[in-house]
Write a structure and sequence with these properties.
Layout (H helix, E strand, L loop, with lengths): L6 E4 L6 E9 L3 H8 E3 L13 E9 L5 E12 L10 E8 L1 H13 L3 E2 L4 H8 L5 H12 L3 H11 L2 H25 L10 H20 L1 H8 L2 E6 L6 H9 L17 E7 L2 E7 L9 H16 L2 E7 L6 H11 L5 E6 L10 H6 L2 E4 L8 H12 L15 H22 L4 H19 L5 H9 L6
Parallel strand pairs: 1-7, 8-10, 8-11, 11-12, 12-13
Antiparallel strand pairs: 1-2, 2-6, 3-4, 4-5, 5-6, 9-10
Helix pairs in contact: 4-5, 6-7, 6-15, 7-14, 14-15
């Protein structure tokens, strides 16, 4: 990737639409725009004040030098550093047909721009200091958001909610390190600003704040990445009906024939403020059918790897041996289990006391009518969402990279605290304090390797 090239890409979704936006960024952006865009006002775009929207015609220059009109549209110039990328940037808006958009982009590339790579605009914004790495990740999450809560979480991240919490911690550690080095290098001058007792108090406070931030990952992950959720039960308990109710679609085939579901069906859905990565599994029972047996083996593997299990029982029938076997299997799990007593729309004719005794959380639901599913959403929220957090404004850790950096920082500080309390030399404490600073710096991108940065921005679309 050549970071000093002038790049261009279509920044609106492909296909037919009202308008399409093509973004040009780099030192040659204005010259290239002057080549393809002719304002109706009679002046060149470079002769007009920045940040003004102009109407005009868009041209392509053929190899013989002839200019051919492609479309009419709007153009606006953002002068560096007052743009998203921090570079000179021009945004051209044309009509949103697939062909006309492609022709306008071709004209821009022919005038000297290079086609942008995935995430290259945002990466340039990061390199220019327009946003830090956590904010860039939040922008990526915003583009991928599929429900309102993911949107709120991403919005808070883009506004720097996490950065505002971590930067002061980084600066506190730096100030402490400066004090320690002063004490080591000039022991007779009394230049240290902090006593060892103050250092202990400060480190303990920083550790508590880091641990509080790390604890928000349970909420952030439940909203952003989703909870790995398995729907299980014996055949014909209504698992596929529950799956369809949650997805809002007839994704799973539902019949009264036992063993209809044989493979794993997966979908990501919003449930209240949480996101569930749910899978519908084959009914658990003894069978001689080889294909069904494979499905059952996969179902058991999914249950063992789950973060949440929705165990479906048919409350209109007596518990079967398969039900009892499932109860015993689920009792051994460490993850939360919610027992769904399905078919509440039918008179309950069985004794559900064994289920109620075996599981902390049981709910009567009707996959057919939707009864009980609002309560299910509330219950899942109470398990995975911190109700005291405001997703739009509070600092919430949203992905595994951020969480891992905080965990490493916390561990380094614990080691430093242990060294201080144990009376070890201050220079040994410095090593761990520096490690904690490095881990906190990774959140903003101060200490992150090129491979990690490339991986993050590769997930963006080309026009972003």
């Amino acid at each position: 990737m050549k970071i000093f090239d002038t790049i261009a890409a279509v920044s609106t979704p492909p296909g037919k639409g009202g308008v399409a936006l093509i973004r040009i960024s780099g030192a040659e952006a204005l010259r290239i725009a002057d080549t393809v865009f002719e304002p109706m006002c009679g002046k060149r775009l470079s002769e007009v004040q920045a940040n003004r929207v102009l109407y005009g015609n868009i041209y392509e220059t053929e190899p013989n030098g002839k200019r051919v009109l492609i479309d009419d549209g709007m153009a606006v110039y953002f002068k560096a550093p007052h743009s998203f990328t921090g570079e000179d940037t021009v945004e051209l808006t044309c009509h949103g047909g697939a062909l006309v958009t492609r022709c306008v982009l071709t004209a821009i590339l022919g005038a000297g721009a290079r086609a942008a790579e995935a995430g290259e605009f945002t990466r340039r914004a990061f390199l220019a200091g327009k946003l830090d790495l956590s904010e860039a990740e939040a922008l990526g999450n915003l583009l991928e958001a599929k429900n309102i809560n993911q949107l709120k979480l991403a919005g808070g991240g883009m506004r720097g909610a996490l950065t505002k919490k971590t930067v002061p911690l980084y600066e506190s550690l730096r100030a402490m390190l400066s004090s320690i080095y002063a004490k080591i290098d000039f022991p007779d001058e009394d230049l240290a600003e902090m006593t060892e007792e103050q250092m202990l108090t400060t480190l303990e406070g920083i550790l508590g704040r880091i641990e509080s931030l790390a604890a928000t990952y349970r909420t952030g992950r439940a909203v952003n990445e989703g909870i790995r959720t398995v729907i299980c039960g014996r055949t014909n308990a209504g698992k596929s009906s529950v799956y369809n109710r949650l997805t809002g679609d007839e994704s799973a085939i539902v019949t009264d024939i036992e063993g209809t579901t044989r493979d794993i069906l997966k979908e990501t859905v919003a449930l209240g403020r949480t996101t569930l990565r749910i899978c519908d599994t084959a009914g658990l029972r003894q069978t001689d059918d080889r294909v069904e047996s494979i499905g059952i083996e996969r179902a058991i593997a999914e249950i063992e790897a789950a973060e949440l299990v929705l165990a479906v029982f048919d409350s209109s029938k007596e518990l079967s041996e398969a039900d009892r076997d499932l109860i015993e299997r689920l009792r051994a799990l460490e993850c939360p289990v919610i027992a769904l007593l399905n078919k509440s729309d039918i008179d309950v004719s069985s004794d559900m006391s064994l289920i109620e005794e075996s599981f902390v959380n049981t709910l009567s639901v009707s996959a057919k009518d939707g009864d009980g599913f609002e309560r299910l959403a509330e219950l899942v929220e109470s398990m995975f969402i911190d109700g005291g957090l405001d997703l739009s404004s509070d600092a919430v850790v949203a992905d595994a990279r951020q969480y891992a950096a905080l965990v490493r920082a916390a561990e380094s500080i614990r080691v430093a605290l242990s060294a201080l309390r144990g009376g070890l030399s201050l220079d040994l404490c410095c090593i761990d304090i520096e490690s904690a600073m490095q881990s906190l710096g990774e959140l903003e991108g101060r200490e992150v390797g090129e491979d990690i940065v490339s991986e993050i921005f590769s997930k963006f679309c080309v026009g972003k």
